[in-house]
């Protein structure tokens, strides 16, 4: 294991030597953290999950939310030990091995490319609600605009993400308040039937049995993908030692309010039997209330959520490619930065691949979403697995006196990290049982084989890529 001299800034932490600018303030970091936990999985995917599990979906979100908190606290401990832009790929490289860092970096990059294609496809679909615009045109325009914004500066990325997240938060809080008003005052068409008893009176709290609840865990975990994005911002946060712990510690109340709270209120106003796959629970709730504008409001919110995810994809892919290049595990050309600190080549390369989504929208607009979504869940969860394993290995290194202790220790670790790993393993097993989700697991071995061969070729040409260099 080798090391190199690392430059430090006036905050006393690393990443200035990486060439990035600290353009993300506390306000933006908080909203990136909040927005990362709220996506189309809640606004759209929850409809399918409710139909499969009934009110017990609330329990599934609560349990998965606890696991997400364990993951984020493990990441927080690593971030306070060494806040770098490579984040979990860098930690995997240091504590698990160079190959683990190579796999994590490229897999997380692919995850966001695939997610970017998925979300820009979804955003183009949502545009047809108002205007008869070809999907590929909308997809192209969105991709170009978000690429340009990320290229200008990290501050502009942060500002866009702040307002995207604000729309999502406002929509959920608004829905909770409306439902609370119906339950207490009884206004709207749903006022006569709304009651907390709907959580157990329509076939019980577990109408599809415990098995039905367990089978929704993959949908639930998909909804939380991207919550770890806050870790990638470490190298560009103005004061990471302060802002990142605060953002991570908000995870419990974010999940409690935006997922558990929102579902409790909606299912207390609308019986779970009224929800169907493919129909947003928010739209169904608005219809039950007799509010005709609900569909238009939700369409705008999910459009915002999709653009937010694509924006995050643009941001993270460039950083991951540059991290790989700095460690000799990717082409050196990806290390190039603009004057504003944006990874020019990595961002451009990733955006160009996302334009494949535009082409898919052109040749097969009806099936575009299905073509690119299958790999997202398993590749996203790989990052969580590496975060947990790296944190466990880091704790072991601290006990041996080989690494300094973090200022932000994860409570209950490493036991909480082992619990989270077992939970993720159970979710993967459930994916294998579910015929619709099984295709994700078919893709994983092929991707692993490609990465394995690529790493052997890389190692033979550049032996330094197989050693860890502290940046």
Give unreliable regions as ranges.
1-17
- CATH homologous superfamily assignment: Amino acid/polyamine transporter I
CATH topology: Amino acid/polyamine transporter I
* CATH classification class: Mainly Alpha
Helix content: 55-70%
- Our estimate of the beta-strand percent is under 5%
Which architecture per CATH? Answer: Up-down Bundle
Give the C-alpha Rg. Answer: 22 Å
Order of helices and strands: EHHHHHHHHHHHHHHHHHHHE
What does this structure look like?
- By secondary structure, the protein is mostly helical.
- The protein is built from 19 helices and two strands.
- It has a two-stranded parallel sheet.
- The radius of gyration is 22 Å and the shape is globular.
- Mean pLDDT is about 80; it is low at about 1-15.
Helix and strand layout, with pairings?
Elements: E1 2-3, H1 26-36, H2 40-53, H3 57-81, H4 87-95, H5 98-127, H6 135-152, H7 154-184, H8 198-201, H9 209-214, H10 217-224, H11 240-249, H12 251-269, H13 281-289, H14 294-326, H15 344-363, H16 368-373, H17 376-399, H18 415-433, H19 438-461, E2 469-470
Subcellular location: Cell membrane
Protein name: Proline-specific permease
Membrane topology: Multi-pass membrane protein
